[in-house]
Amino acid sequence: MAKPAPMDTDKIKGLVCRECGKEYPAVSLHVCDMCFGPLEVQYNYKAIKPRLTRKAIEAGPKSLWRYVDLLPIAGDPTVGLDAGFTPLVRAKNLGDELGLDKLYIKNDTVNHPTLSFKDRVVSVALTRARELGYDTVACASTGNLANSVAAHAAAAKMQCYVFIPHDLEASKVLGNLVYRPNVVEVEGNYDDVNRLCSEIAGEHKWAFVNVNIRPYYAEGSKTLAYEVVEQLGWEAPDHIVVPMASGSLLTKIWKGLNEFHKLGLIDRMATKVDGAQAEGCAPIATAHKLGRDFFKPVKPATVAKSLAIGNPADGYYALKATAESGGAMDMVTDEEIIEGMTLLAQTEGIFAETAGGVTIGVLKKLVKQGIIKRTETTVALITGNGLKTQEAVMNAVGRPTRISPSLVHFQKTFGLGNHER
Amino acid sequence: MAHLRFHLRFPEDKIREPVLCQINRAFPKVDTNIRRADVREKTGWMDVEFSGDTAEIERAIEGIRQKGVIVDPIELNVVE
Q: Tell me: the pLDDT tens digits for A81-96?
């Protein structure tokens, strides 16, 4: 890093309870002792503002660490130095298809090193975990998070435990084993795995990235919003469509946009943050549709497994963020998810995982309903790579055309002429 | 002594039952401390801290589950 990182006291004020406002030092704590509300990182914006200019950011590394002044680490980043700064693709073909003049795809299918937006949050979480003195990291995951934690832990030479349900598909297990973490298959149903991991996190002095390190981990998602704004030429879009699992990503997109506005990096901020879920697991979108400020947990049943969180930790806050922004939420069926995936692939050449199909499916609905207007600048967040969920589209992409090894047969099959010669 | 924190959800058909009171009677060595709650006419949730021997708390939790109340970790879903 070219410039020295500010110290803790300068940049990070500490942690604050999102419910009662009680303040804590910036340690590994995630639940308020007073009211049991979740904690989040608070920054000293007064100290940050004078040094955080567009020019200073543009001179930074081509990774998410160009926004280090707004990330919760005290020193230099040490893990995931190449994560982030993924392409913002002008999606003309898809825009034509959907009826949007200015559509962009934020393409985190090519995030480094494990091809999902989780590389952002894990880079921040593991850097902070090291600063807090941890040498062991852990997570409970069925997919992208486990991949990212295992890969980053391997590169950072940290001990790693990945907890997975015992019936996870073989391909997903392999994607973790290759990095040599301790992969622990837990017998029992999803709730049993969930409960056990919470207890382990409370019992062992490990950095459980999405439990005791969660306040730091979640902040990494803000970089998606920062990058979108910078890549649009320091403009905030009119709409951002965000897939929702725990709801954390959506709340952090909203936080990131507001931070840039507050710090004077953008003049105008009228972005509507729209949430997307799969019908088979839509507790947040359902609550939004019913006009409720609370959600009813569900048992997930959807092809979009990376979004299948039935009792989302940040569901309430996602509802609040979307309402504050004036955004919308919607949900799509499994069929619409597959359609969304193939549409994105066939118009823009981007193969997204099922969550991307959810985003595109909901984007399509919001345009149809007139919620997103043709002339509005719209960004769809595509958060994971389709190679990870190939089985989802296996029956929707057809078969290769088989021919004999003959030029005539080839030309005949494809009507290319000259086959009589 | 262990202190374990849980998020309890009361479905509509259980909201009128004094579940926590019954659990306190059945497990007198486990202290229950309600720290945050939203109980409405038809539904409700509570964030509760249970203090006592770990095994005894686990038995009490199982007892709450058997009464039809849904028990989650305080963090809700941690499997992502």
A: 999 999 999 999 999 9
Higher pLDDT: A417 or A17? It is A17
Residues of A in contact with B36 (CB under 8 A): 19, 35-37
pLDDT in tens, A238-254: 999 999 999 999 999 99
Which of A311, A314, A317 should we substitute to test contact with B (largest number of B Cβ atoms within 10 Å)? A311
**Which domain, by its residues, includes A350?**
88-114+219-393
CATH fit for domain B2-45+52-73, picks 3.90.1530, 2.30.320, 1.25.60, 3.30.70: 3.30.70
The answer to which of A2-6, A28-32, A219-223, A351-355 has the lowest mean pLDDT is A2-6
Same domain? A243 vs A351: yes
Whether residues A283 and A373 share a domain: the answer is: yes
Which comes out higher in pLDDT, residue B41 or A42? A42
Kindly state whether residue A358 falls inside one of the protein's structural domains: yes
On whether both A237 and A323 belong to a single domain, the answer is yes
| Beta-carbon separation of A195 and B73 below 8 A | yes
Closest by Cα among A262, A230, A228 to A242:
A228
Q: Look at B77 and A313 and tell me if their CB atoms are within 8 Å.
A: yes
* Structure confidence at residue A142 as a pLDDT band (50, 70, 90): confident
Whether residue A240 is found in the same domain as residue A366: yes
Tell me: pLDDT of B8 over 90.
yes
Mean pLDDT, chain A, whole residue set: 94
Pick the more confident residue, A269 or A202: A269
CB pairs below 8 Å between A and B: how many?
A: 76
Test mutation, B8, B48, B64, B75, chain A, max A CBs within 10 A: B75
B79 and A197: CB-CB below 8 Å?
Answer: yes
Residue A62 falls within a domain, yes or no?
no
How far apart CA A324 and CA A250 sit, in angstroms, is: 12
Nearest-Cα residue of chain A relative to residue B78? A194
Do A240 and A285 reside in the same domain of the chain? yes
Residues of chain A neighbouring B38 (CB-CB closer than 8 A): 294
Residues A350 and A288 in one domain: yes
Which pLDDT tens digit goes with each residue over A147-173? 999 999 999 999 999 998 888 778 778
Question: What is the least distance, in Å, from the CA of B76 to any CA of chain A?
Answer: 5
Residues of B with CB under 8 A from a CB of A: 4-5, 9, 35-36, 38, 43, 47, 49, 70-80
Q: Which of A122, A191, A248 to mutate to test the interface with B (most CBs of B within 10 A)?
A: A191
Q: Is the pLDDT of residue A119 over 70?
A: yes
